[in-house]
Amino acid sequence: MPNSPSDTPRRVTVQRKGPLLVEGPVEVELEDGTVLRSDRFRVALCTCRRSRRYPWCDTSHRDRA
Amino acid sequence: MHSHEPQLPEARGPLSAAVLGHLRGTGPLPPPGGIAGSPVYGDDLQLALYVCYELHYRGFAGVPPELEWDPELLRTRAALEDRFLAALRADATVHQGAEEALAGLLVEPVDGAGVSHFLRDKGELWQIREYAAQRSLYHLKEADPHAWVLPRLRGRAKAAMAAVEFDEYGGGRAERLHARLFADLMTDLGLDTTYGRYLDAACAELLATVNLMSLFGLHRALRGALVGHFATVEITSSPGSRRLAEAMRRTGAGPAAEHFYDEHVEADAVHEQVVRHDVIGGLLEDEPHLEADIAFGVDATEFLEDRLGEALLAHWREGRSSLRTPLSPELAHVP
């Protein structure tokens, strides 16, 4: 099925440092097949892999001093 | 529904006694000289201001709601606010740029020594209960002071701020209101979830942190500061909430207590991004002259949060209660 032309594209915001921001709700499938869901208006996906709540960002990407 | 309105607190000095007397219809408001001479961060002035502000939220039992717009009371409130604002402008760090003010918050100290570090590492249940009782003055009206800024914003900043507030208000579901999640945490800890129940117990340093939000929220002229304040809360919340969630787990505080902070780790990691990029970014595009106000909101918030943290830790390190009135005997610290 082709997408309807009226569908607005889902915006994903990338940044050099920090999470990937996706308009919610989203489902995330992990490598082991587990599917996790977040229904926030926007979801922050961890890209640094340091999050203790992976795949969700928990601000662990921040510099430490 | 008068039974749902909070009780008036006990006075903490002549200023708060005069304001309370005015609300009861029994006495005159404080003379200007009384306001000028009172310690600005002290119990008396901060409670007087808190009581003035509370009329804009839920009011008090037995106080006519019309007093919210009583010109005499507003004049007194303005005099209290002038002192508070002048003190904050003199005492808080001054950053000129918003990004510069926020930069320090975005670095996580390796050897942090704040309240959340203390509670994570060695907090006992009585200290966690005190922390929750103190913070209940804000969390039971979580997001309310910030909602006042919405009509003062436009475009991208407004849409983003409304989206974050919607999340704070449970995304349309009453059982997910953050204020409700905090009430559930309080129930886990054996605390009374009645709105305003711990006003008499809260210390002056806590009152000042809530007064700051009301001050920024109620004045359109301070919309930049409100946004800077909100960004500070959202940026610092996620790592702080992670430590507090660990404190709740370690002490067996209960599932709702853990959930409140777990929810804030995730929610505020998102809110931080939205507030920095879209609320601050949008406001600066729209009104670039507000940059110094945004920075002031950040700096004033950090200043008052640091003072609160120091006050709580000074009491707890010595095994003393941080509250002005004790919790019931089965909840309180027994030295």
Q: How would you spell out the order of helices and strands of chain A?
A: EEEEEE
Shape of chain A: globular
**Segments of chain B where pLDDT lies below 50 for 5+ residues?**
none
Count the DSSP helices of chain B: 14
Number of domains of chain B: 2
- With strands numbered from the N-terminus, the spatial order across the biggest sheet of chain A is 1-2-5
User: How many β-strand runs of chain A?
Assistant: 6
Structural domain tally of chain A = 1
Q: How much of the polypeptide of chain B forms β-strand, as a percent range?
A: under 5%
CATH-defined architecture of the largest domain in chain B:
Up-down Bundle
**Global mean pLDDT of chain B:** 95
Largest sheet of chain A: 3 strands, antiparallel
> How many helices of chain A in DSSP terms?
0
Task: Give the N-terminus to C-terminus distance of chain A in angstroms.
Answer: 51 Å
Q: What's the helix-strand series of chain B?
A: HHHHHEHHHHHHHHH
Distance between the termini of chain B: 41 Å
Mean pLDDT of chain A, as a whole number? 91
The proportion of residues forming helix of chain B, as a percent range, comes to 55-70%
Radius of gyration of chain A: 14 Å
Largest sheet of chain B: none
What does this entry look like structurally?
The complex is a heterodimer of chains A (65) and B (335). Chain A is 0% helix and 31% strand. Chain A has no helices and six strands. Chain A has one domain. Chain A has a three-stranded antiparallel beta sheet, with no helix packed on it. Chain B is 63% helix and 1% strand. Chain B has 14 helices and one strand. The radius of gyration of chain B is 19 Å and the shape is globular. The interface between A and B is medium-sized, with 21 and 21 residues. Chain A: This is CDGSH iron-sulfur domain-containing protein. Chain A: Keywords: 2Fe-2S, Iron, Iron-sulfur, Metal-binding.
